[in-house]
Amino acid sequence: IEPLGGWESPDSDIRGVFLAFYLQASAKAYLAYNDTRQLAKAYYLVNELYRVQQILNESGFLAAWPSEHLRRLERLEKVWAPIYCYEKLLRGLSDMYTLTGLTLAGEMMHDMLEYLYTWVVHCIKTYSISHWHTMIFSTTDYEYGGISEFLYEQYGLTGDRRFFWMAQQFEDGHFLGALSLNADFLTGIHANSHVPPVLGSGRRYAITGEPQYRAILENFYSIVWNNHTYSTGGSNGGNGSVGFYQQEHYSDANLLSQTLWNNNQEFCVQYNMLKVIRILIEWTGQVEYVNAYERVFVNSIWGTQDPSEPGHMLYSYPLGENVSKPNSVSSGGIGFGSQFDSFWCCYTTAIDQWTKMSDSIYFFDKQNGVTSVYVNLFIASELDWRVQEHILIRQTTAFPRETTTILTLTTSIDIVTLNIYLRVPSWIASNESWIEINDVRQQIELTPSTYVLLPISHWKTNDRIMYNMAMRLYIEPINDNPQLVSILFGPIVLGGLTTKAKTLRRDMNFIRRLNSTIHEPIQFEATTLDNSTFRLLPLYEIVNETYTVYFPLG
Predict the structure, then answer these.
(1) What is the pLDDT of residues 175-226, one digit of tens each?
(2) Distance (Å, whole) CA 491 – CA 448
(3) Distance of CA 136 to CAs 33, 65, 77, 86, 356, Å?
(4) Helix and strand totals (H; E) in the chain
(5) What is the spatial distance between Cα 447 and Cα 311, in angstroms, rounded to a whole number?
(6) pLDDT average, residue stretch 6-35
(7) For residue 29, which of 306, 355, 428, 519 is within the disulfide window of CB 3.0 to 4.6 Å?
(8) What is the domain partition of the chain in residue ranges?
(9) How far apart are CA 363 and CA 451, in angstroms?
(10) Average pLDDT taken over every residue of the chain
(11) What is the rounded distance in angstroms from the CA atom of residue 427 to the CA atom of residue 474?
(12) What is the spatial distance between Cα 102 and Cα 100, in angstroms, rounded to a whole number?
């Protein structure tokens, strides 16, 4: 047996993070797919971790690295993200406890929290609050992860005020204060260090109702989406030539055209932005956020694995001219990682993300005794709601390779009363789209970026809803240059298979659809200003080819 390599190697400061996410992913896989085989592996790991915790005998401390890393942090010496690592294992054990019912995991998590509380109190009493702020917010490699979000969750579950107090100690007042005022000070900051604290603010608002913490999350999303986001939904820049540019960091606001390179979009950032957007969907029910969720999900999550090899994943997603995924550049190295020698942070978030592919497909609410379900995403899935609402909804589709989705209902009683809302996406071609219920075409206006309420609310077994969503082909300019555009088909960003610079015609007729079936990728052909042609594929379908995402208009 040989040790793992990369960021899980025995000499890595952040070893153990992949295992922590493995526990999170295993718990979610069990919850979503009843994967008992995976659960058994996770149970074995928790038991082995318990043995380690007992052998260490450090008042509950548990990590793959020594507690001396925390002492180094106290002394302001270089150490790589011990709080981030500690929080990930806390989260892994918490998920194993709350999602699978493993009591041992909950007890281990509790002991880890007791150790953390004692350490935080020790640091502040021994040094000063100013020294603490330097330790957490100003030291080299200071990424501290989602610790505030986790601690607020624990306070909400237990009522233990120590967790609330501790969460406050991990809030960066300068960063969060600026966001509460809707000020864009993102330029030059490490993107993935700052999305999780925003999630912590969202959790605090959910528990306390303090409006400024809701404003922090809402403003952060608005700033990122409007000032720092590509057509893919990705939001951290790569190299450039003007203003601030550095991989994994936010570039200058509204200067995205200068950052298109081979090292855009760290996967972890997009993983965490989906969490931000999901919270906004829960709070508001607004379709604009579902549109955003879909944009990120389709274009920045799909396509980050090499399908020919297990465990080969991307760190950065190239968006420049004539780039390729195998030649992408990141802190982890070049291109796709390897099965046993990478284990970057983007591996850890990836395994969690791939167990959440059913996340946010359906939402529901209940008002005045009437239950409503909202169909947000068009993904083959099954919503088994028979225990609570006596209904099972099966969604059958090959979207986006086909434009139709079918919802088939099964009820456990004769008639079920349920309002069903279907999302009408921003990209829909309304005049070519339609809804049928039990083979009867409905006279329903499909207005983009709304929900449509189906005219039937009483359902029985074998009722069937067919929803056809014709997808528009359109261009979308980058936020600082109307003459530099990406091409989209529905929610899908298309990558042009290119090896040299291409200039597009302004007339959309320069793009034609090539024949394809649900068993083949969506394909288009574009004619350039010099009458040469090139193929366009969904960005997520491209693996090894050289491609371009943004094109100048002639």
Answers:
(1) 999 999 999 999 989 999 999 999 999 999 999 999 999 999 999 999 999 9
(2) 13
(3) 38, 18, 12, 13, 30
(4) 15, 22
(5) 41
(6) 96
(7) 355
(8) 55-94+112-353
(9) 12
(10) 95
(11) 9
(12) 6
Could you identify the residue written with the tokens 């797919």? Answer: 33
Distance CA 56, CA 516 (A): 59
Q: Can the peptide bond before residue 318 be classed as cis, meaning omega within 30 degrees of 0?
A: no
Q: To the nearest whole percent, how much of the chain has pLDDT over 90?
A: 91
Strands 419-424 and 370-375: parallel
The label of the residue with tokens 């042609």 reads: 533
| C-alpha closest to that of 46 among 26, 70, 29 | 26
Tens digit of each residue's pLDDT (9 = 90 or more) over 316-360? 999 999 999 999 988 878 899 999 999 999 999 999 999 999 999
pLDDT attached to residue 134: 95
Per CATH, is 55-94+112-353 categorized as 1.20.140? no
> For residues 406 and 438, is the Cβ–Cβ distance under 8 A?
no
Encoding tokens for residue 138? 């100003």
CA distance 454 to 451: 10
Phi-psi label, residue 411: left if phi above 0, alpha if psi -120 to 50, beta otherwise: beta
Which residues are CB-neighbours of 525 under 8 A, at least 6 positions away? 511, 512, 514, 533, 534, 535, 536
- Encoded tokens for 302: 């799909």
Question: Which whole number is the average pLDDT over 418-426?
Answer: 98
The model carries a pTM of 0.97
Per DSSP, helices labelled H in 17-142 are: 17-33, 36-56, 68-74, 82-100, 103-126, 129-133
**What is the share, in percent, of the chain residues with pLDDT greater than 70?**
98
What is the three-class DSSP state of 537? strand
